[in-house]
Amino acid sequence: MSRTREQFVFDWGARPALGAEDFLVGPSNAAAVDLVDRWPDWSMSSALVVGPAQSGKSHLAHVWQLRSEAAVLDAAVLDEVHVPELMVRSAVVVEDIDRGIRSEKALFHLLNLAREQRTSLLLTSRAPAGELTIALPDLRSRLRALAMTEIGPPDQTLLTAVLVKLLSDRQITVAPTVVHYLARELDRSFAAAASLVEAIDRLSLARRQPVTRALAAEALAELRAAERAKKATERRLLRDI
After folding, report:
1. Sheet holding 91-95: strands in order across?
2. What is the SS3 assignment for 188?
3. Predicted TM-score of the model (pTM)
4. How confident is the model at residue 226 (pLDDT cuts 50, 70, 90)?
5. Could you give the CA distance from residue 143 to residue 140 in angstroms, rounded to a whole number?
6. Other CB atoms within 10 A of residue 59 CB
7. Of 4, 10, 129, 167, which is most buried by a Cβ count within 10 Å?
């Protein structure tokens, strides 16, 4: 997997790049990358990767899927009818267990069978197991016992590289000085980087203008204004409760 670099020598296409060589590695996600790299020599049959929105959990799961030939299913659609089908595979990915599990019994059975049959099971979530609302006590206990690997906020070097990748995915050419400016000013968040690039793309297309520092700064100001409005709305709703 590629390491972040100061010079912008990336060569990505128009679509999001999801290969192992396209996953940008920094201190915040190195442990999660190491988990994937160590497979199949895991100490446990199942593992949980936790990280905020847009942090690369699905990208990393895709890398592992290609390496392990895993079946992939969202937790929101996982049902007991899926369990026998999944267990004929040597590896399984269950995505986004924090966003709702259709059948908690199915996930509990899947975890048990993975341990018994030495099937590798990779789960992803935006929140640690202890913070999830799980009704089934046995599943709650089993999830909390899993080895958890967390993806943290990116440092400035990784954030710079993420911005370059997101811009390249949209075929947007931006001077390195502009990208460095945005990486300094932007909140250290993968989701903020994605929102900012979307705003830049929208402004650039609407005006049919290249992305200058002035346009990028305007997009950044727009993003900050939207965040302030969101927080004001949340405070108002809390007062009304």
Report:
1. 71-74, 91-95, 120-125, 46-50, 147-150
2. coil
3. 0.77
4. confident
5. 5
6. 19
7. 167
